[in-house]
Design brief:
The protein folds into two domains: 15-191, 3-Layer(aba) Sandwich (Rossmann fold), CATH 3.40.50; 212-246, no CATH class. 38% of the residues lie in helices and 12% in strands. The protein has eight helices and six strands; from the N terminus they run αβαβαβαββαβααα. It has helices spanning 15-25, 40-51, 65-79, 89-105, 162-174, 187-191, 212-224, 239-246, and strands at 30-33, 58-61, 83-87, 110-116, 152-154, 181-186. A six-stranded parallel sheet has the order 2-1-3-4-6-5, sandwiched between helices.
Protein backbone atom coordinates (compact mmCIF):
# COMPACT_ATOMS: atom_id res chain seq x y z
CA UNK A 1 0.00 0.00 0.00
CA UNK A 2 1.38 3.39 -0.95
CA UNK A 3 2.40 5.62 1.92
CA UNK A 4 0.47 8.80 2.56
CA UNK A 5 1.21 11.99 4.41
CA UNK A 6 -0.75 13.25 7.39
CA UNK A 7 -2.71 11.53 10.12
CA UNK A 8 -5.49 8.99 9.87
CA UNK A 9 -8.78 10.89 9.65
CA UNK A 10 -11.50 10.30 12.24
CA UNK A 11 -9.15 8.89 14.87
CA UNK A 12 -8.61 10.35 18.32
CA UNK A 13 -4.95 11.28 18.59
CA UNK A 14 -2.71 11.03 21.62
CA UNK A 15 -0.42 13.90 22.48
CA UNK A 16 2.48 11.91 21.04
CA UNK A 17 0.63 11.46 17.73
CA UNK A 18 -0.05 15.20 17.54
CA UNK A 19 3.64 15.88 18.25
CA UNK A 20 4.64 13.46 15.49
CA UNK A 21 2.17 14.95 13.01
CA UNK A 22 3.63 18.42 13.50
CA UNK A 23 7.12 17.06 12.86
CA UNK A 24 5.83 15.55 9.61
CA UNK A 25 4.36 18.91 8.63
CA UNK A 26 7.80 20.48 9.02
CA UNK A 27 9.45 17.83 6.87
CA UNK A 28 11.39 16.18 9.70
CA UNK A 29 13.05 13.05 8.33
CA UNK A 30 14.84 11.68 11.39
CA UNK A 31 14.41 11.59 15.15
CA UNK A 32 17.73 10.94 16.90
CA UNK A 33 17.26 9.69 20.45
CA UNK A 34 19.03 8.51 23.57
CA UNK A 35 15.76 7.79 25.35
CA UNK A 36 14.46 7.06 28.81
CA UNK A 37 11.30 5.71 30.39
CA UNK A 38 9.20 8.73 29.40
CA UNK A 39 9.12 8.10 25.63
CA UNK A 40 6.90 4.95 25.19
CA UNK A 41 3.92 7.09 24.03
CA UNK A 42 6.04 8.37 21.15
CA UNK A 43 7.25 4.87 20.27
CA UNK A 44 3.61 3.79 20.09
CA UNK A 45 2.84 6.76 17.82
CA UNK A 46 5.76 5.79 15.57
CA UNK A 47 4.47 2.21 15.41
CA UNK A 48 1.01 3.51 14.49
CA UNK A 49 2.56 5.69 11.79
CA UNK A 50 4.22 2.64 10.26
CA UNK A 51 1.10 0.47 10.58
CA UNK A 52 -0.98 3.09 8.75
CA UNK A 53 1.60 3.45 5.96
CA UNK A 54 2.16 7.14 6.70
CA UNK A 55 5.37 8.80 5.57
CA UNK A 56 7.16 10.22 8.57
CA UNK A 57 10.34 10.54 10.58
CA UNK A 58 12.64 7.56 10.96
CA UNK A 59 13.55 6.87 14.59
CA UNK A 60 17.26 6.26 15.26
CA UNK A 61 18.24 4.99 18.72
CA UNK A 62 21.66 6.14 19.96
CA UNK A 63 23.53 4.98 23.07
CA UNK A 64 24.40 8.36 24.62
CA UNK A 65 22.92 11.86 24.63
CA UNK A 66 26.19 13.51 23.63
CA UNK A 67 26.39 11.31 20.54
CA UNK A 68 22.70 11.80 19.71
CA UNK A 69 23.11 15.58 19.90
CA UNK A 70 26.20 15.45 17.70
CA UNK A 71 24.52 13.31 15.04
CA UNK A 72 21.44 15.57 14.99
CA UNK A 73 23.61 18.67 14.64
CA UNK A 74 25.69 17.11 11.87
CA UNK A 75 22.57 16.08 9.96
CA UNK A 76 21.05 19.57 10.24
CA UNK A 77 24.29 21.24 9.14
CA UNK A 78 24.70 18.89 6.16
CA UNK A 79 21.11 19.11 4.90
CA UNK A 80 19.78 22.43 6.17
CA UNK A 81 16.71 20.57 7.45
CA UNK A 82 15.25 20.58 10.94
CA UNK A 83 16.61 17.75 13.11
CA UNK A 84 14.96 16.40 16.26
CA UNK A 85 16.86 14.98 19.24
CA UNK A 86 15.16 13.31 22.22
CA UNK A 87 16.92 12.96 25.57
CA UNK A 88 16.08 11.64 29.02
CA UNK A 89 14.75 14.13 31.59
CA UNK A 90 17.25 16.49 33.26
CA UNK A 91 20.18 14.06 33.34
CA UNK A 92 19.95 13.53 29.57
CA UNK A 93 19.64 17.26 29.04
CA UNK A 94 22.87 17.84 30.96
CA UNK A 95 24.66 15.13 28.96
CA UNK A 96 23.52 16.82 25.73
CA UNK A 97 24.27 20.35 26.97
CA UNK A 98 27.60 20.79 25.18
CA UNK A 99 25.99 19.76 21.91
CA UNK A 100 23.09 22.15 22.48
CA UNK A 101 25.57 24.94 23.17
CA UNK A 102 27.47 24.11 19.98
CA UNK A 103 24.24 24.21 17.96
CA UNK A 104 23.52 27.65 19.43
CA UNK A 105 26.86 29.14 18.45
CA UNK A 106 26.84 27.45 15.03
CA UNK A 107 23.23 28.51 14.37
CA UNK A 108 22.05 24.98 13.65
CA UNK A 109 18.30 24.21 13.62
CA UNK A 110 17.69 21.34 16.04
CA UNK A 111 14.62 20.71 18.19
CA UNK A 112 15.83 19.14 21.44
CA UNK A 113 13.15 17.51 23.60
CA UNK A 114 13.31 16.00 27.07
CA UNK A 115 10.64 14.18 28.99
CA UNK A 116 9.45 15.09 32.46
CA UNK A 117 6.52 14.49 34.81
CA UNK A 118 3.85 16.87 36.04
CA UNK A 119 2.35 14.46 38.59
CA UNK A 120 5.39 12.65 40.06
CA UNK A 121 3.34 9.45 40.26
CA UNK A 122 0.37 10.99 42.05
CA UNK A 123 -3.18 11.24 40.76
CA UNK A 124 -5.44 8.96 38.75
CA UNK A 125 -3.89 7.25 35.76
CA UNK A 126 -0.42 8.69 36.30
CA UNK A 127 1.33 5.77 37.99
CA UNK A 128 4.51 4.84 36.14
CA UNK A 129 5.69 1.98 38.34
CA UNK A 130 8.95 1.92 40.23
CA UNK A 131 10.35 4.70 38.01
CA UNK A 132 8.15 7.42 39.50
CA UNK A 133 10.53 8.32 42.34
CA UNK A 134 13.26 9.25 39.88
CA UNK A 135 11.18 12.17 38.65
CA UNK A 136 11.52 13.86 42.04
CA UNK A 137 15.12 14.66 41.07
CA UNK A 138 13.81 16.62 38.07
CA UNK A 139 11.55 18.97 39.99
CA UNK A 140 11.27 22.27 38.13
CA UNK A 141 11.74 20.72 34.71
CA UNK A 142 14.79 20.36 32.45
CA UNK A 143 14.01 23.35 30.20
CA UNK A 144 15.55 25.80 32.66
CA UNK A 145 18.93 24.05 32.42
CA UNK A 146 19.66 25.16 28.84
CA UNK A 147 17.94 28.55 28.65
CA UNK A 148 21.21 30.55 28.21
CA UNK A 149 22.20 28.84 24.96
CA UNK A 150 18.98 28.17 23.06
CA UNK A 151 16.74 30.41 20.97
CA UNK A 152 13.88 29.34 23.22
CA UNK A 153 13.51 26.83 26.05
CA UNK A 154 10.21 26.02 27.71
CA UNK A 155 7.88 23.37 29.07
CA UNK A 156 4.14 22.84 28.76
CA UNK A 157 1.94 24.33 31.50
CA UNK A 158 -1.19 22.46 30.32
CA UNK A 159 -2.01 19.63 27.88
CA UNK A 160 -3.74 21.96 25.43
CA UNK A 161 -0.49 23.83 24.81
CA UNK A 162 1.31 20.79 23.33
CA UNK A 163 0.31 21.35 19.70
CA UNK A 164 0.92 25.10 19.64
CA UNK A 165 4.18 24.88 21.57
CA UNK A 166 5.58 22.21 19.25
CA UNK A 167 4.51 24.13 16.16
CA UNK A 168 6.13 27.29 17.49
CA UNK A 169 9.33 25.47 18.49
CA UNK A 170 9.82 24.17 14.93
CA UNK A 171 9.12 27.60 13.51
CA UNK A 172 11.57 29.39 15.81
CA UNK A 173 14.34 26.85 15.16
CA UNK A 174 14.07 27.34 11.38
CA UNK A 175 13.65 31.13 11.33
CA UNK A 176 16.81 33.16 10.68
CA UNK A 177 19.08 33.22 12.51
CA UNK A 178 18.51 29.50 12.94
CA UNK A 179 19.37 27.71 16.15
CA UNK A 180 18.38 25.11 18.74
CA UNK A 181 15.07 25.17 20.58
CA UNK A 182 14.42 23.08 23.69
CA UNK A 183 10.99 21.69 24.54
CA UNK A 184 10.17 19.77 27.72
CA UNK A 185 7.33 17.27 27.22
CA UNK A 186 5.54 15.66 30.20
CA UNK A 187 4.95 11.98 29.54
CA UNK A 188 1.39 12.36 30.88
CA UNK A 189 0.56 14.83 28.08
CA UNK A 190 2.10 12.53 25.46
CA UNK A 191 0.08 9.53 26.64
CA UNK A 192 -3.36 11.05 27.07
CA UNK A 193 -5.77 12.02 24.27
CA UNK A 194 -4.84 15.31 22.68
CA UNK A 195 -6.88 18.32 23.73
CA UNK A 196 -6.24 20.09 20.43
CA UNK A 197 -5.54 18.73 16.94
CA UNK A 198 -2.24 19.42 15.26
CA UNK A 199 -2.16 22.83 13.50
CA UNK A 200 -2.78 22.38 9.75
CA UNK A 201 0.21 22.64 7.45
CA UNK A 202 3.36 24.48 8.37
CA UNK A 203 4.49 28.07 8.64
CA UNK A 204 7.38 28.86 6.33
CA UNK A 205 10.47 30.38 7.97
CA UNK A 206 10.62 34.15 7.79
CA UNK A 207 13.35 35.27 5.38
CA UNK A 208 15.96 37.66 6.74
CA UNK A 209 15.68 41.19 5.37
CA UNK A 210 18.68 43.27 4.27
CA UNK A 211 18.88 47.01 4.87
CA UNK A 212 19.32 48.49 1.33
CA UNK A 213 21.31 51.47 2.59
CA UNK A 214 23.62 49.24 4.61
CA UNK A 215 24.08 46.91 1.65
CA UNK A 216 25.02 49.83 -0.62
CA UNK A 217 27.51 51.10 1.95
CA UNK A 218 29.10 47.65 2.28
CA UNK A 219 29.40 47.37 -1.51
CA UNK A 220 31.07 50.78 -1.65
CA UNK A 221 33.60 49.83 1.03
CA UNK A 222 34.42 46.57 -0.76
CA UNK A 223 34.83 48.29 -4.12
CA UNK A 224 37.24 50.83 -2.65
CA UNK A 225 39.24 48.38 -0.52
CA UNK A 226 42.71 47.33 -1.67
CA UNK A 227 42.79 44.03 0.26
CA UNK A 228 39.19 43.27 1.25
CA UNK A 229 38.44 40.60 3.85
CA UNK A 230 34.87 39.42 4.40
CA UNK A 231 34.06 37.54 7.61
CA UNK A 232 30.80 35.72 6.88
CA UNK A 233 30.34 33.61 10.02
CA UNK A 234 28.12 30.58 9.26
CA UNK A 235 26.58 31.90 6.03
CA UNK A 236 29.90 31.43 4.25
CA UNK A 237 29.28 27.68 4.09
CA UNK A 238 26.20 28.19 1.89
CA UNK A 239 27.23 28.07 -1.82
CA UNK A 240 24.13 30.06 -2.82
CA UNK A 241 25.08 32.86 -0.44
CA UNK A 242 28.60 33.01 -1.89
CA UNK A 243 27.19 33.17 -5.44
CA UNK A 244 24.91 36.05 -4.45
CA UNK A 245 27.83 37.89 -2.86
CA UNK A 246 29.90 37.56 -6.04
CA UNK A 247 26.98 38.79 -8.12
Amino acid sequence: MAAEKGSKKGKTQSGAEVFLEILRNYGVEYIFSSPGSEWPPLWEALAEQKAQGIDGPTYINIRHEDTAAGVAIGYAKATGKLAVCLVHASVGTLHAAMGIRAAHFEKTPVLFCAGESVTFGEGDGSWVGAQWGRYLADYGGPARLVEPFTKASYGLPTPNTLAGATHRACQVAMNAPQGPVFLSLPFEYLAQPAVLPAPPGRTMPVAAQVDPAGLAEAAKLLAEAQSPLIITENIGSDPKAVAQLIE
